[in-house]
């Protein structure tokens, strides 16, 4: 059994020289990260479609079973609201072709304004997507979490398209007032989302946001340990992304989450040994 875990990015200043080697050229940064985790969120593609040679570099730095959850550009999801974006979508799909199976799912993150009345638009958009990719949808409108009818309608749309619902669990963050600048910033910017643990496909995806205190982050993810282990027992192949407000310890915490699931379910394959932060010497 293989559990995929990762972070919101593969390069982060607090990791350099402490967890990852420094300096590293851009063409080596994802490779070093991939010795720590076997998945990563592709948030950068939200802001701009990457050059194809950049994506080719990502593919060269990772094994075929590495998972990259690639976010659709905001020009498609937020500016055009899933309509009239055929040209942007074609450009994006062409750019990410070199990833092959590493493009675990194309991530459709929708704005908080996208509510139950917009489900027809989502259904039409998903029907028009090529079947060569898997898709995962993240919604932030509270009606989908508080109105049972809206929840069922969204699940029906996603199930018909074979798409997964990506939960963003922010319960731990908002459980008590912030204690750092990064937490205060997250309180202002992150959505207050309830915990959702229902998987729609054989490849569930979880985004979990903890606290800057690692102990509180670990405490907050405890409900996920049994859920993820249960998915693995059912033959599903989950991917879990660990965030904290400052992400300073996200790399080590992602591996800790993997260790916690393995302690609960020893049949889970181990992660690779991380690349040393300091270069190896002969003496």
Automatic annotation (TrEMBL):
InterPro entries: DUF72, UPF0759_sf
Coiled-coil residue spans: none
Entry superkingdom: Bacteria
PANTHER family (alphabetical): UNCHARACTERIZED PROTEIN YECE, UPF0759 PROTEIN YECE
Name of the protein described by the UniProt record: DUF72 domain-containing protein
Organism this protein belongs to: Actinomadura craniellae
Lineage: Bacteria, Bacillati, Actinomycetota, Actinomycetes, Streptosporangiales
């Amino acid at each position: 059994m293989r559990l995929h875990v990762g972070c919101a990015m593969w390069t982060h200043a607090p990791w350099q020289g402490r967890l990852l080697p420094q300096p590293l050229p851009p063409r080596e940064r994802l490779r070093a990260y991939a010795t720590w985790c076997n998945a990563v969120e592709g948030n950068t593609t939200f802001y701009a479609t990457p050059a194809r040679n950049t994506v080719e570099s990502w593919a060269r730095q990772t094994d075929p079973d590495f998972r990259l959850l690639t976010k659709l550009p905001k020009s498609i999801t937020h500016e055009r609201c899933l309509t009239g974006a055929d040209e942007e979508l074609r450009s994006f799909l062409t750019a990410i072709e070199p990833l092959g199976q590493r493009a675990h799912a194309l991530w459709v993150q929708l704005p908080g304004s996208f509510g139950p009345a917009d489900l027809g638009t989502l259904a039409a958009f998903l029907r028009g997507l090529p079947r060569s990719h898997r898709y995962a949808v993240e919604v932030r409108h509270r009606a989908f979490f508080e109105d049972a009818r809206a929840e069922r309608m969204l699940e029906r749309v996603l199930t018909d398209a074979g798409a997964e619902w990506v939960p963003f669990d922010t319960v731990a963050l908002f459980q008590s007032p912030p204690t750092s600048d990064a937490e205060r910033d997250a309180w202002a910017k992150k959505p207050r989302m309830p915990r959702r643990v229902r998987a729609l496909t054989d490849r569930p995806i979880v985004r979990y946001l903890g606290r800057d205190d690692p102990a509180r982050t670990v405490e907050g993810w405890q409900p996920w340990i049994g859920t993820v282990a249960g998915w693995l027992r059912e033959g599903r192949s989950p991917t879990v992304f660990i965030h904290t407000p400052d992400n300073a310890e996200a790399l080590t915490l992602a591996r800790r989450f993997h260790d916690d699931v393995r302690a609960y379910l020893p049949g889970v394959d181990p992660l690779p040994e991380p690349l040393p932060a300091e270069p190896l010497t002969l003496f």
